[in-house]
Amino acid sequence: MTAADALFARRSLTVMIGSVLSVGGAVVAATFFLQPWRSCEGEDTSVGCAMLPGDAAVMQVAGLVFLTGVIVVAAGLLAPRPERR
Length: 85
Description:
Layout: H1 3-34, H2 53-78
Organism: Microbacterium enclense
Keywords: Membrane, Transmembrane, Transmembrane helix
Transmembrane segments: 12-37, 57-79
């Protein structure tokens, strides 16, 4: 494996890891925003129910994971590209 191949593999792996983090964080944050498991009196939909402190903490962590994933993807895309011969 040449140095260019190793750099390309590292760059691709960085973009893949960042993408997984971004998608995972976005899915968890959206799920906890919609709260499909919650029901409360006087509300037709679960979105109208108040969020519990634990749910808010999970949503904040998911948001941070999403932002971390976006930063990792950006770092992978902005990394130096291997030289072409």
